[in-house]
Each structure stands twice: as structure tokens, then as C-alpha cells.
Write a structure and sequence with these properties.
- By secondary structure, this protein is mainly beta.
- The protein has one domain: Pectate Lyase C-like, CATH 2.160.20.
- The chain is built from three helices and 32 strands.
- The chain has a 19-stranded parallel sheet that branches. A nine-stranded parallel sheet has the order 4-7-10-13-17-21-24-27-30. The chain has a four-stranded parallel sheet with strand order 9-12-16-20, with no helix packed on it.
- β1, α2 and β2 form a beta-alpha-beta unit.
- The relative contact order is 0.08.
Length: 432
């Protein structure tokens, strides 16, 4: 079982998500129409901005204002990656920035992949942030985004109703750092409904403060692998030895017979995350970890009945402590784990922060029951961790992606007015 320096990893991720680039050119999109005349000037489409960035050496920035951008250019050059037709082929280090998740919408028009990042090696980087990518269609890996072999940073992006053979929301063949994002309603014909991480080389990727809801992998023969996430090294073109961290994230209602939430043959570390309703029937499993996969859970909630929280075999599923499981399917056996325990979860909704979360109900056994050693500095919403959620004056991390804010007052001090009234008599005067 691997030891993780989580606070260091999160610090590195936070810095990496907002890289600074010197001498970067900026291209401003000025219209929603999908045109291609080879120039990005006062009349500049998103496709023309991508072409201009491709032609300009160095890391560039594309700014997409509020609006809906629908890809419409059908051509005979499918697969040639010229950027003239179908998907947007990004060939240079580029940051693509929208005006907000609900303001900038880019649609594949149920015909095309949206972004194809043609990076070559981990030193080449792309960033996509502050937008929704929806209605993509691709009969290969990657609907909303395909990242070929570089490093990609995703922040505040919603992947909505995309379709692909694999990795319907996004397919990462290199390194992916994903934060504060939503994967919703994406459908894969075979594997990886929300996200596929299929690394070409040994690498480390992260998913932080993100929500996966209603994604599906539909393989008609074998039931589908990885409704939310597929992390594979034994698959075609994959490389063994890579790792994925899932931190402060929520998985709800994702469907696949093998791993409604996660299907893994590499190594995954899950910290302070919540899994609910990802196994709708008894033959389904929320977590699938076939050999040689390794998954370690810490401070996390597994509530996926009536199906299996984890599918067999479970010999490579480990506990780093302080987990809650509604069954014993995952065989989490640390002294601080709670098995056959109802975590008392609320419903997925807007509880503050950029992504939907599931609150802990009053008297939840997850409140102040986690471990502080690897507790992240905030929860999925950005709420400070740890706090005193049960008013025992001790600040302890909650289990799962949500931290109950609690009443920080000392209960003894709170009781003093009543004690004084009792001693003084009901009328507030001393007894005579």
C-alpha cells in the first residue's frame, strides 16, 4: 500500500492549475458562428482562434466570451487533424478560457468531438477552464476532450451529455489535473462514461473537488466498465505503473456493471470522497478493481446499496482508515473504519461552492469521525477543514467530501447562562 503526502500533492496541483506563461499571445473570440477563413482579427470564430494559436510559437491564450458555440463544419478530412473541419485541433501549448460554466457553452452538435489536444510529451501543456462542453459525439476515445500525450489542466468545466466509445466526457492519454469540475450525463458505448485516463507513459493524475453524476458505460456484452472513471494500464495502448488521486469528490448515480463509479487496473488513492447510488442492482458494483489494480480508501463514504460497494476480487482494495461502508463488500478492516453503517447522507444539490455536493445529515456518523493526518485544507465546496462539527471542542475532519460547519462555541460556555439562572433562582435573584 502506498504512502501519500497529500498536502504536498494538493499544493502542487493548486500551483499547476494556474501556470504563468511569459510572452503569451491572446486571441479573442468575437462571434459564435463556426467559420474558418484562416484569420483571427476583429472577426474571429473559436475555430479561427485555435488556428491562430496553433500558428503562433509559445503558449497562447484563447478567450471565449459568454455565448453558445456550436461546431458545424462538416468536411472530408476526418482524422487529418487540420482544424478546418469537425473537432477543434489544438496543436500548441494553449489556455482556453470561457466566461463561466453557465455562460460559455461549446457544443459538438451531436456530431463531433469538441477539443483534440495534440500534445507530444508531458512537457507540453493545455488548460481548459470556465465553460461547459456538451453534446459531443465520437466513435473513439474522448468526446468532450481528447488529450493525446501531454499535460492538461481542467478547472471549472462541466462535461454534459457527451458520447464516445470510451471516455465520453474526456479521454486523457497523458497527465490530467482536474479540479472543481462536473461530469454529468455522459455515455460511453463501452468504457469510461465520464472520464478515461489511459496513460501512454508512467504518470500521475488527479481529480479534486469534482462531481460525477449520472454517467454511464454501456458495453452490451460485458456490462460496461467505469461509469464515472476508467483508469486503465492493461487496456490497448495503456502503460502500467501510473497513479490517480481522487480527493474531495462526489460520485452519484453513475452506472456500469463493472465499476459504476471507478474501474481501475492501475493504482488509485481515494481521500475524503463520497460514493452514493452507483450500483442500482445487486449484480452491479460501484468499485471494480481487477488485477493488478490497487485502490486505497481514506476518510471516504461508500453507500451504493442495493448493489455492491466493491466487486470481487477485493484483495487489492486497502484502507488507510476512517471510512464508512454500508456493507462489507470492500472488506475495509482498519480499526477506525465503520462497516454496515448508514452514513446518513442528504441529497445531491447546491450547498455552496462550484460543484454539487451531498451534505451530512444531523447525527451522521461521518461527522468528526475522520483522520486529521491527511485531511485536506478544505472540503469539496471550499469550506475549511477540519472544524469542530459535533461541538466537543476538538477540530476533527469529517468523513467524505462534505465538512459540516458546526457550532464552534464551547458547549460548557453555552450552558453557563442556564446554570447561573438555576443558581440564582427563576426570577434571577438569589434564593433567600
Amino acid at each position: 500500500m502506498k504512502n501519500y503526502a497529500v498536502s504536498c500533492a494538493v499544493a502542487i496541483l493548486s500551483a499547476a492549475l494556474f501556470p504563468m506563461f511569459v510572452n503569451a499571445a491572446e486571441f479573442q473570440v468575437t462571434k459564435t458562428a463556426d467559420t474558418f477563413d484562416g484569420a483571427c482579427n476583429a472577426d474571429c470564430s473559436l475555430r479561427e482562434a485555435v488556428q491562430a494559436a496553433n500558428a503562433n510559437p509559445g503558449h497562447d491564450k484563447i478567450v471565449i466570451p459568454a455565448g453558445t458555440y456550436v461546431l458545424t463544419r462538416v468536411g472530408e478530412e476526418s482524422g487529418s487533424n487540420t482544424n478546418e473541419f469537425e473537432d477543434l485541433d489544438v496543436r500548441d501549448d494553449t489556455t482556453i478560457e470561457g466566461a463561466g460554466v453557465d455562460k460559455t457553452i461549446v457544443s459538438g452538435n451531436d456530431q463531433f468531438r469538441i477539443f483534440h489536444m495534440l500534445n507530444n510529451g508531458p512537457e507540453e501543456t493545455s488548460t481548459v477552464r470556465q465553460m461547459t462542453l456538451r453534446n459531443a459525439f465520437r466513435e473513439s476515445c474522448g468526446g468532450g476532450i481528447r488529450e493525446s500525450d501531454g499535460t492538461i489542466f481542467i478547472s471549472h468545466v462541466k462535461f454534459l451529455n457527451n458520447y464516445a466509445e470510451r471516455g465520453a466526457g474526456m479521454c486523457a492519454r497523458g497527465i490530467a489535473y482536474i479540479s472543481d469540475s462536473i461530469f454529468e450525463g455522459n455515455v460511453a458505448a463501452l468504457w469510461g462514461g465520464g472520464l478515461t485516463v489511459l496513460p501512454r507513459r508512467v504518470s500521475h493524475s488527479e481529480v479534486v473537488r469534482s462531481t460525477f453524476v449520472g454517467n454511464e458505460a454501456q458495453d452490451p456484452q460485458f456490462g460496461g466498465d467505469g461509469g464515472a472513471i476508467e483508469h486503465c494500464g492493461t487496456c490497448t495502448g495503456g502503460t502500467e505503473g501510473s497513479t490517480l488521486d481522487v480527493i474531495n469528490s462526489t460520485f452519484v448515480g453513475n452506472i456500469a456493471e463493472n465499476g459504476g463509479a471507478i474501474w481501475n487496473t492501475l493504482e488509485v488513492y481515494v481521500l475524503n470522497s463520497t460514493f452514493k447510488d452507483n450500483a442500482p442492482t445487486f449484480q452491479d458494483g460501484a468499485i471494480a478493481n481487477p488485477p493488478p489494480g490497487i485502490i486505497t480508501f481514506e476518510n471516504s463514504i461508500l453507500d451504493n446499496l442495493p448493489g455492491l460497494n466493491c466487486r470481487a476480487p477485493t484483495n487489492n482494495i486497502f484502507s488507510a482508515g476512517h471510512n464508512i461502508e454500508t456493507s462489507i463488500h470492500c472488506e475495509l478492516e482498519a480499526a477506525s473504519d465503520q462497516s454496515r453503517t448508514d452514513p446518513l447522507l442528504g441529497e445531491l444539490g447546491d450547498n455552496g461552492g462550484p460543484t454539487p455536493t451531498i451534505p451530512l445529515l444531523e447525527n451522521s456518523p461521518a461527522i468528526d469521525a475522520g483522520g486529521n493526518n491527511n485531511c485536506p485544507a478544505t472540503d469539496q465546496r471550499g469550506q475549511e477543514r477540519p472544524v469542530d462539527g459535533d461541538n466537543d471542542t476538538i477540530e476533527t475532519c469529517d468523513i467524505g467530501a462534505y465538512e459540516v460547519e458546526g457550532d464552534m462555541r464551547n458547549p460548557i460556555i453555552d450552558a453557563l447562562p442556564g446554570i447561573i439562572d438555576y443558581l440564582m433562582g427563576e426570577d434571577g435573584k438569589e434564593d433567600e
